[in-house]
Amino acid sequence: MPNLTKIVNLVREIYKQSGFKEPRRPGKREFSDLYVCQMVVVQNLKGYSNESEFLRFLKNHPCKAFPKLPTQSRYNHRSKELEPVIERLTATVLKKLKTHKSKIRIIDATGVPVTKFYRRWKTKAFNDNKFFGVGYCHDKKERYYGVKLTLIVNIEGIPVTYHLMSARRHDVKALQPAVKDLQGIWLIGDKGYAGKKIH
Fold it and tell me: What is the pLDDT of residues 94-153, one digit of tens each?
């Protein structure tokens, strides 16, 4: 995978060429929109779906690109605020890195808990039964409440596309929506994706 500095510089270049301008706000922000965008793009490309894990990684592996780190709550708020810009930046960065030229993709799914299991009925923010649900993690041998993330990466481990669905649904249910924009590739997955209909 390209080194972190190269990706950060590439995001800065694309950001400036795209003509994104930070809106005028009262007071001075410690972290610019570009800085947050660079962090989120790096997080996505390094495969961190969890913000706290990514911030912990940067804290344990200091780099010149990110000398200061925002708190998790501030990072979460700013990244959601900049989501449309970040999606465009990530797509352009992937093209610049030529990830689309690789014909091999790897697919897998993992559970993403959104709240403690015993608090699942008390948390109003996650009470949408169509999107959130109870799933089972085979590695940890425990149930969790949240969503299931299906991630497709290239052979270098760079995420190409993803799909989120309720944790109660089987991995294979995400296959069709996750691969709808992919053509002419070899897709590698575990036996959970096996079956005549799917094949």
Answer: 777 766 566 888 889 888 888 888 777 777 777 777 788 888 888 788 899 989 999 888
CA-angle at 88, arms to 83 and 89, nearest 5°: 95
189: which 2 tokens?
């997955």
- Structure tokens, 68: 């200061």
- Predicted structure pTM score: 0.57
Residue 198 located in a structural domain: no
- Report the domain count for the chain: 2
Q: Both 141 and 115 in a single domain?
A: yes
The amino acid at residue 192 is G
User: Which DSSP string do the residues of 47-116 spell out, in sequence order?
Assistant: T---HHHHHHHHHHS--TT-SS---HHHHHHHHHHTHHHHHHHHHHHHHHTTGGG--EEEEEEEEEEEE-
Give the Cα separation of 184 and 190 in Å (integer): 20
